[in-house]
Target: DMT family transporter
Amino acid sequence: MRTLTLTTATTSPLRTETAAAPAPRPGLWLGPLLALAATAIWSGNFVIARHLGDAVAPVQTSFWRWVIALAAVAPFAARGLVRERQAIRRHAGLVVLAALLGVTLFNTLIYIAGQSTSATNLALIAAASPAAIAAFAFVGGERMTLPRATGMLIAFTGVVTLVSKGSITALLTMDFRAGDLWMLAAMATFAGYSALLKRKPAAISGTSFLLATFAAGTVMLAPFYAASVVLQGAFTPSSTTVGPLLYIGVASSAIAFYTWNKAVDLIGATRAGVIYYLQPVFVACVAHLAIGEHISLVQILCMATIVTGVALGAKR
Model:
């Protein structure tokens, strides 16, 4: 007697459906957006730093900036810092080095540089920051693509042309001073800090890392602040100093550093660094809106060049 064996289909109805397209990763758009926000906020910081230069000593400006930043971040990060204290202890070397570069040194060096060199020189040296960030990141293992390098070159050309107002003579006759060395040091510390962010352990949250570096950096600044008060005298708070200090403490430190750190975590230091080239564009716009500074056709063309370079270099 023959046995008839019936074979049933084993294919699940679910398997016959077309697989849904994977959801886009948030870093594709969120990372560049966060880097853009940090760059825009820092653009206001340069204007304010020049405003505070005559009223507050550089080290005192930097110290109070981070004290204010600590007060702004602590309510949101203190609980997480306590919860993650073991991880922070294990990686104390990384935290202290990031604090030294990004908090203690970077902005302090900019404030010192601003006292002994021109704004043009500061802007030109700052324009090299993305290249320095890319170099540090490359050493740390990040990949540099040809379109990204091309975009950086285009953006850098636009920045140099914008700062020099399109005059080769102005570039060749620039007077370099001691402050330029301070600015070069500031550029190197920021590049090192940005590249270091990719090494932040996943066990330490962004806000905890921010609070830990702010606290460590402020502690390292404290002796220099005390020396400045003894030698130069403490500044007197007034309506012309408190507002700017609050801006650089809350916006340029707490908010901008958080958004920048998150951006680097999402898209890497090199891509975030390319977006940093937009800073002179934001500075020009702020100066135009705040103090009515005229923007010429040459400046508009330079800004368009920078934006083109950034768009090319920041592409994934």
User: Anything to note?
Assistant: The two ends are 68 Å apart (CA to CA). Residues 1-22 have pLDDT under 50 and may be disordered. The first helix runs from residue 27 to 52.
